[in-house]
Amino acid sequence: MSKRLIQNLTKAIYKHVDHFNQTEVECLIREFYNLLGQPTSSGKSDNNLDERKFKAILKNDFGLTNDTLMERVFRMFDKDNDGFVSVKEWVEGLCVFLRGSLDEKIKYCFQVYDLSGDEYISREEMLLMTRNCLRLHGEEDPFDGIKDLVEITLKRMDHDNDDRLSFDDYEKSVKELNIVLEAFGTCLPSATRIEAFEQRVFQDKSDRR
């Protein structure tokens, strides 16, 4: 991809991001095309990340392993719902994913956990996500024990007592106790993963420019 095209893309995308400087935006664009392979003009699938490639990045670079939550993270990046993550969606999504404020991460995580998209996290959704999370960690699947864990969590976080979590319930709970931000499964990278990714992408790419 030509240097001029990269520079033009950088200027256009930089206007829409809050947490990266212009050099970092350029590095993220270069990383996008590095992960994708040389872009072509033959079609959308050749110039954007599909769900399979995106999930592989989530797993290999950021340590996410839950298929249900990785699919939801993909949907969070794919803002136009066309089944692909464009370079613009990649950079804008990484703003929150890597450097989001607590308020931004609360909104992001809630939307990931709202599997049905009805603006609530239901008891059934909590059961599904908790069950998947325990299976990934090699735990046995005692359904009654998982139900008990979900009931305890729901009782703690359901401030308006309607047997489901609204955004207000979730936000209030996280601000009272930050550790419940990812109560229903990992959907953000660890600080160690973020540091490794940023060091590789920003430092290495800057050195090669």
What does this molecule look like?
By secondary structure, the protein is mainly alpha-helical. Helix content is 65%, strand content 4%. The chain contains eleven helices and four strands. Strands 1-2 form a two-stranded antiparallel sheet. The longest helix is centred in the last third of the chain and has 18 residues, at 191-208. The two termini are 14 Å apart.
Task: Jot down its keywords.
elongated; 65% helix; 4 strands; mainly alpha; two-stranded antiparallel sheet; 209 residues; 4% strand; single chain
Outline, from the CA principal axes? elongated
Number of helices: 11
Strand order of the largest sheet: 1-2
Q: What proportion of the residues is helical, as a percent range? A: 55-70%
Number of strands: 4
- Approximately what portion of the residues adopt beta-strand conformation? under 5%
Mean pLDDT: 91
**Which sheet architecture does the biggest sheet show?**
2 strands, antiparallel
Order of helices and strands: HHHEHHEHHEHHEHH
Structural class: mainly alpha
Instruction: Please report the distance between the alpha carbons of the first and last residues.
Output: 14 Å
Report the C-alpha radius of gyration, rounded: 19 Å
Give start-end ranges of low-pLDDT stretches: none
